[in-house]
Amino acid sequence: MKARISPTLAAVVILGAATVVQAKPISRIISEMGLTPADFEVVSETADAMLAGSTPRVGEEGTWVNDATGSKGTILVRDVRDNCVHLQHFIQPEGTDQTREVRTRRCRDAGGNWILTP
Question: Rounded distance, CA 22 to CA 36, Å?
Answer without folding.
Answer: 23
